[in-house]
Design a protein that fits this description.
By secondary structure, the chain is of the alpha/beta class. It has 2 domains: 9-278, Uncharacterised protein PF07075, DUF1343 (Rossmann fold, 3-Layer(aba) Sandwich), CATH 3.40.50; 288-393, no CATH class. Helix content is 25%, strand content 12%. The strands form 3 sheets. The protein has a 7-stranded mixed β-sheet, with helices on both faces. It has a 3-stranded antiparallel β-sheet with strand order 10-12-11, with no helix packed on it. It has a two-stranded antiparallel sheet with strand order 2-3. Strand 8 (201-204), helix 7 and strand 9 form a beta-alpha-beta unit. The longest helix is centred in the middle third of the chain and has 14 residues, at 183-196. The two termini are 23 Å apart.
Length: 431
């Protein structure tokens, strides 16, 4: 699909009205469609998203399907939850390929005379350059003049006054499929605030690069935090759109309220289809390898082991000054860089392992974590309090300290994973 902002504006709106003729009607305060997902009764994948021809398929992300959603925005005041990944591609994506030709969604909608009132930015900011956990200030986007509201720090949930001029909220963020990657926590709070304010939410869906497997311990709600808000495994195998329908259907929002929700699904996509992210989703996930390893290596963020922040191989190496030099011969020295202004062990030699050429994972790897624990100088200093939040349970730390093997630990996850898979099946849009 070619996207020509100026020449095709009128055509897009006309085609949109025709192709979206199955919409029953629009409410003054939002939209209602025949496939309304407020009650999260999602059609099976074969009706929601036709089986792709994987030989010649081109992945078409939700944002690119302007014909499907522009009519929903006509005459509305729009809020957008977006970052640097929220783009419309000038050419569709083939599996395992990247496409540098794109226009930001906000820029495109403004060019199409859509009334964009506010951009809401998650962790790392609207342009995606802030460190993990760094406070992001509200401001004005210098390119468009649109106000930016940060959804990180003390303002994780949009306030009523920040939503008073919004009729429809768009959520378009590239996720990586890990429970502790905070974009799905931002999704929760946006849906909750919009449900309370009777504002419909429109999800422009994107592929999950780690959507080909499900693994990890189920979060226990006693350990709920911004890096884990729901009783799901570490790797959930769902897209943002699917996950939003699960949040709604399982009534995880405050007091069990539900959000008026519509998902623009990805075309020609399955969960088993490899997907190379055209834009890095955050400063410390610079490439496909780091994204694949992230789900396993992020556990180290709850220990005294570095995951390579402050190097050019973030989440592709791990190490610390305290690991046994004879068993961990690879070395690196963290320095300040983009996404790591003050990295752990700055200017100190770390001994560890280089995983840049490791095979891609189809399950969580606990072997690296267990090996690092066994080979650290002072085991009492290895774990910190953040580890339990990342793991979602106290059991994993206790199991590692007790000397259980990876296989023994994973056996204890089986029942929870089977139960989650049954629940997940109710919300799948893609095979």
């Amino acid at each position: 699909m070619r996207f020509n902002i100026v020449k095709n504006t009128v055509l897009l709106f006309v085609l949109g009205m025709i192709s979206c003729g199955n919409f029953s009607k629009k409410k003054a305060d939002g939209f209602v469609t025949e496939d309304q997902t407020t009650n999260t009764q999602i059609p099976k994948p074969k009706t929601q998203n036709p089986k792709p021809n994987t030989q010649n398929s081109q992945i078409i992300v939700g944002a690119n399907q302007t014909v499907a959603y522009l009519p929903l925005l006509k005459g509305k005041r729009i809020g957008i939850v977006a970052n640097q990944t929220s783009v419309i591609f000038k050419k569709n994506l083939k599996p395992k390929t990247q496409n540098p030709n794109y226009t930001h969604l906000v820029d495109s909608l403004i060019a199409l005379n859509v009334n964009v009132k506010t951009v809401f930015a998650p962790e790392h900011g609207f342009r995606g350059t802030a460190d993990a956990g760094e406070h992001i200030k509200d401001g004005i986007d210098t390119k468009t003049g649109v106000p930016i509201v940060s959804l990180y720090g003390d303002n994780k949930k949009p306030k009523p006054e920040q939503l008073k001029n919004i009729d429809v909220m768009i959520f378009d963020i590239q996720d990586v499929g890990a429970r502790f990657y905070t974009y799905i926590s931002s999704l929760h709070y946006v849906m909750e605030a919009c449900a309370e304010g009777n504002i419909p939410v429109l999800i422009l869906d994107r592929p999950n690069p780690n959507g080909h497997y499900i693994d990890g311990p189920i979060l226990e709600m006693a350990n709920k935090s911004f890096v884990g808000m729901h009783p799901i495994p570490v790797v959930h195998g769902m897209t943002i759109g699917e996950y939003a329908t699960m949040i709604n259907g399982e009534k995880w929002l405050k007091n069990g309220i539900q959000c008026e929700l519509k998902v623009i699904p990805i075309k020609n996509y399955t969960h088993q289809m490899p997907y190379s992210l055209p834009i890095k989703p955050s400063p410390n996930l610079p490439n496909d390898k780091s994204i694949n390893l992230y789900t396993s290596l992020c556990f180290f963020e709850g220990t005294n082991v570095s995951v390579g922040r402050g190097t050019n191989t973030q989440f592709q190496v791990f190490g610390s000054p305290f690991l046994d030099k004879t068993n961990f011969t690879y070395t690196f020295t963290p320095k300040p860089n983009e996404g790591a202004k003050s990295p752990l062990y700055q200017d100190k030699i770390c001994y560890g392992t280089n995983l840049t050429t490791a095979k891609n994972l189809n399950s969580l790897n606990l072997g690296w974590l267990i090996s690092a624990y066994k080979n650290t100088k002072n085991k009492a200093d290895f774990f910190n309090s953040f580890f339990i939040k990342l793991a979602g349970t106290k059991k994993l730390q206790q199991q590692i300290e007790a000397g259980l093997s990876e296989a023994e630990i994973k056996t204890t996850w089986k029942q929870g994973l089977e139960s989650f898979k049954e629940t997940r099946n109710n919300y799948l849009i893609y095979k």
